[in-house]
Design a protein that fits this description.
Layout: E1 5-15, H1 18-28, E2 32-36, E3 42-45, E4 55-59, E5 64-72, H2 75-88, E6 92-95, E7 106-110, E8 116-120, E9 150-158, H3 161-170, E10 175-181, E11 187-193, E12 201-205, E13 211-218, H4 222-234, E14 239-245, E15 251-257, E16 263-269, E17 280-283, H5 287-291, H6 300-304
Parallel strand pairs: 1-4, 5-8, 9-12, 10-17, 13-16
Antiparallel strand pairs: 1-5, 2-3, 3-4, 6-7, 7-8, 9-13, 10-11, 11-12, 14-15, 15-16
Length: 307
């Protein structure tokens, strides 16, 4: 939290049919529906999260990600980061308090990859779902499906990876935890973190801007990932790959698609990062093993299916 950015706050995802999407995110993945607003957007959260929501679904005519948001320490930090983004040369947009229910004002900028990112300092806190903040039980009764415990990160595809990395490093205080480099030493993928996690957001080089690869949610155990795989088959949900292990981050994972074609991941485990850790480097020629450690090859869907 070097520059006051604490963690991922939420992601807003476009879906083609809201009721189908809710069967997926609420009933299969186990997110909790919190609210629906007058624009038809649906707000959800994972059960361990204290903020009111971490996922917003918006019905649209094409899938993808509208924006990803990060929560900062306070409004003073928000104002400072806004000024630094402007000084850096970013165009910023003011989004007023309440545009998303329960969320304070947001500052939006467009990364060199073409993705929209928001910063905010305030969001209504409703606490962990189903358990008290005093003498809490181990977990709440009534969880559905995969019982996802938190929104963890997004992987995004676009151009100008190096410029995006420098912006996140120099202005927002992110650190480079892992990278993939080509034979000339150029970065083709960066995994960035503001805390101890393996990554809070990651970017992979792609000529087309503003492409959404996946939103990822954390599960507690490998057994939970295997159970998620069972549920994917039991519901005839479209699967990408897994269960398997990553080389990058070493997380244990499975990828699948929502009914609109947006990719999701649930995973457990993974590496940790401290500020004194040097970045871990993977060679682009070994990308298959870096992504899918057991198979050591990439499937075509993982590289080409983007929304």
């Amino acid at each position: 939290m070097r520059n006051g950015v604490m963690r991922p706050g939420h992601v807003q995802i476009r879906v083609l049919d809201m009721e189908e999407a809710l069967e997926h995110y609420r009933d299969l993945m186990g997110l909790i529906e919190v609210e629906r607003d007058n624009q038809g957007r649906v707000y959800l959260k994972a059960w361990t999260e204290v903020d009111k929501f971490s996922v917003v679904l918006r019905e649209a005519d094409k899938p993808g990600m509208d924006h990803m948001a990060f929560k900062v320490l306070n409004n003073e930090v928000l104002e400072q980061l806004e000024a630094e983004l402007v000084a850096y040369g970013c165009e910023v947009e003011q989004i007023p308090e309440g545009e998303l229910s329960g969320c304070g004002r947001r500052v939006r900028f467009v990364a060199p990859t073409g993705h929209n990112f928001d910063l905010f300092a305030e969001k209504e806190q409703t606490g962990k779902w189903g358990i008290s903040s005093v003498n809490p039980e181990a977990w709440p009764r009534g969880l559905k499906g995969m019982k996802a415990s938190r929104f963890d990160h997004c992987l995004l595809y676009g151009p100008n990876i190096e410029e995006t990395y420098v912006l996140f490093r120099d202005v927002l205080g992110f650190e480079l935890a892992e990278q993939v480099v080509d034979p000339e030493g150029g970065r083709v993928a960066v995994f960035l973190t503001v805390g101890m996690k393996a990554h809070d957001v990651a970017f992979i080089d792609c000529p087309e801007p503003n492409k959404f690869h996946h939103a990822s949610f954390f599960l507690e155990t490998w057994e939970a990932v295997l159970r998620a795989a069972d549920l994917i088959s039991m519901t005839n949900t479209s699967i990408d790959i897994g269960p398997t292990r990553h080389g990058l981050t070493h997380g244990q994972t499975i990828y699948f698609f929502d009914p609109s074609g947006n990719r999701n991941e649930v995973f457990c485990g993974g590496d940790y990062h401290y500020p004194d850790h040097e970045p871990i480097t993977w060679k682009a020629e070994d990308l298959g093993k870096a992504i899918f450690y057991h198979d050591r090859v990439l499937n075509e869907r993982f590289l080409s299916v983007l929304t």
